[in-house]
Specification:
heterodimer, A: mainly alpha, 14 helices, B: mainly alpha, elongated
């Protein structure tokens, strides 16, 4: 328990250091850019002001629209969080059974169409897949809304989450990655001595290899996919006109609205690092020996 | 699916040398073959597009022949201005070919440099390098690129430099792990005992003899990532701009006519992107399997 607490504490301190580094890097870029913007050349006091604003969540006002950034950013951040977590769950639901199946029969028999399917799904461009789904699911059948309702209409709000989450979860390259990793790791673990011995005792082969063969590879891959999912969210939110952080980032890129973009970068770094902390904790739970080193 | 029965602690598979072609299963042969097919048509398309032979002019507007479905004359049909889609796809390889190579070069060169440094000198170099690379790694790539576009210019070469920079951490991690294993092995220790210079040991015996496979795998996967980034940005409208063809902006332009039933305008570039990226992923994973590396994308 003490070890776990120490691990988490160490990780949190490292995260704070990293956020300092990221903001310093961004500040360096501001000073390198052409033109005069955001206190360029102000040196350390300006940087400290920026840091203070970010850490107290007082983000200031947008340059273009003049609105307080907090009021537009937090609903968008919540939407993107829901989108990302939902997409991870969908990817897991698709990829884990295929991986287990192809570990049992490696590329022979019935497993190869599923493996190829996972590769096709993970390399199809997410913007085109979005259009395809919009065309077939919404336009041809018409039972799922293709837009995000702005206000009221509470009963449709849940339904409008379905399509973007489904598209981002299916069409990202985590799917084939998980399939490949699970099929190779599970295949390796299932032929180790302790699993063979437990099978000889009459236990299920899968149940005794689930920790080393599935849980550890999954944890180590899922949380490192968070940055890519945020990147995919930018495109998906553009396709579905979904009011999230990615679309806000794209819009502020077009508007050259730097303060909003900085805050978005800060929040997404926070998301990535929280994912890393979760990864460390989960790896410690599944494999207590490893985290100590 | 156990390939090496003798692969245990202390005994390296290289001591029992199995030729590469005998390590491959049917799956690996299929994966690598498909990947080589994709790689070859990419190179052929690029060569055709820079020499401008065999194809129609991809910029030539022909209002009389708008929205023609695929036929013998126009292999993939024509788009909303009557331009030949096949020649635009061939020309579209120019948008990512050289920039992609640039990004691969940057990421492998610096990845090997940092990886070898932090693997060979764990005390001094390792901590600083891993901190710096964690900074780069924790900014999502697309957000980073958007910031670069706002601050500097939306040039594809600059974007690809940053794509290369953001994939340095992954390569560094693998090279570092590999170097840490290699460092303790007999042939490195004996070459130290023979009095070889550190540069010879690092560049000849570690990088050239033992890291080739990792670098090749990373190069194929990196080209796939570069194509993905380029097409995504062109789709969003901040990469290659419209009169010049790119697979991404062809999908974006064709998507306006998708709901009118003219599906080939965006489907054909999208299928091309899918097949290409899938081929590069399959090539990387097949090479992974026969070299027995554990490189993830």
């Amino acid at each position: 328990m003490i070890t776990a607490l120490k691990l988490v504490l160490k990780e949190i301190i490292y995260t704070l250091l990293l956020i300092l580094g990221v903001t310093a890097l961004l500040f360096l870029f501001f000073n390198l850019m052409p033109g005069n913007y955001m206190g360029k050349g102000g040196g350390l006091p300006v940087y400290l002001d920026l840091l203070k604003g970010l850490f107290t969540f007082q983000f200031g006002v947008s340059v273009v629209s003049g609105v307080d950034i907090n009021t537009i950013l937090f609903p968008a951040f919540r939407n993107t969080l829901v989108l990302t977590i939902g997409a991870i769950c969908i990817s897991l639901i698709i990829a884990v059974p295929i991986g287990i199946f192809s570990a049992y029969r490696s590329f022979k028999g019935y497993s190869w169409p599923l493996t190829i399917f996972s590769y096709i799904v993970s390399s199809i461009p997410v913007f085109y897949f979005g259009y395809l789904i919009l065309f077939f699911v919404s336009r041809q059948t018409g039972f799922l809304p293709i837009f995000y309702p702005e206000s009221t209409a509470g009963k449709y709000r849940f339904l409008s989450y379905v399509l973007p989450i489904l598209v981002l979860g299916v069409a990202n390259d985590a799917v084939s990655e998980i399939v490949r990793l699970i099929s190779s790791e599970l295949g390796r673990v299932m032929s180790t001595d302790y699993v063979v011995a437990s099978r000889a005792r009459g236990e299920y082969q899968l149940a005794s290899s689930i920790n080393e063969g599935i849980a550890i590879p999954l944890v180590s891959i899922i949380f490192s996919k968070v940055p890519f999912l945020i990147g995919g969210a930018v495109i998906i939110e553009f396709v579905f006109n979904w009011p999230g952080m990615g679309r806000l980032a794209f819009q502020s890129t077009l508007d050259r609205d730097l303060p909003v973009l900085v805050v978005i970068a800060f929040l997404s770094v926070l998301m990535v690092r929280v994912g890393m902390i979760l990864k460390k904790i989960l790896l410690y739970i599944f494999n207590p020996g490893e985290g100590r080193g | 699916m156990k390939r090496f029965y003798f692969e245990e602690e202390g005994i390296q598979s290289s001591e029992f040398h199995v030729p590469l072609y005998r390590r491959a299963s049917a799956q690996d042969v299929f994966f690598i073959g498909f990947g080589l097919f994709v790689l070859s048509y990419l190179i052929v398309f690029y060569l055709i597009s820079i020499t401008n032979i065999f194809i129609k002019n991809p910029m030539e507007i022909n209002i009389g022949a708008m929205f023609q479905p695929p036929s013998f004359d126009h292999l993939f049909g024509t788009d909303f201005l009557g331009r030949d889609i096949f020649s635009r796809i061939v020309k579209g390889t120019e948008a990512f070919f050289l920039p992609g190579l640039l990004s691969i070069t940057i990421s492998t060169a610096f990845g090997v440099l940092f990886g070898v440094l932090s693997g060979m000198y764990p005390r001094f170099a390792s901590r600083i390098i891993s901190y710096l690379l964690d900074i780069v790694d924790s900014i999502p790539r697309l957000i980073f690129i958007l910031i670069i576009i706002v601050l500097f210019s939306p040039s594809i070469y600059l974007i690809m430099v940053f794509v290369g920079v953001t994939s340095i951490p992954k390569i560094t991690a693998y090279v570092k792990a590999k170097v840490q294993v290699l460092k303790r092995q007999g042939f490195i220790e004996s070459s130290k005992a023979l009095g070889l210079a550190p540069s010879t040991i690092i560049f000849k015996h570690i990088v050239w003899f033992s890291l080739k496979s990792v670098l090749i795998i990373h190069a194929t996967l990196g080209l796939g990532e570069a194509i993905l980034i380029e097409t995504s940005l062109s789709y969003l409208g901040i990469g290659v701009q419209e009169p010049f063809p790119s697979w991404g902006n062809m999908v974006a332009m064709g998507a306006d006519y998708f709901f009118q039933g003219r599906v080939w305008l965006s489907t054909i570039p999208a299928v091309t992107i899918t097949v290409t990226i899938m081929g590069l992923y399959l090539l990387g994973d097949g090479l992974n399997a026969i070299y027995n590396e554990k490189v993830t994308r």
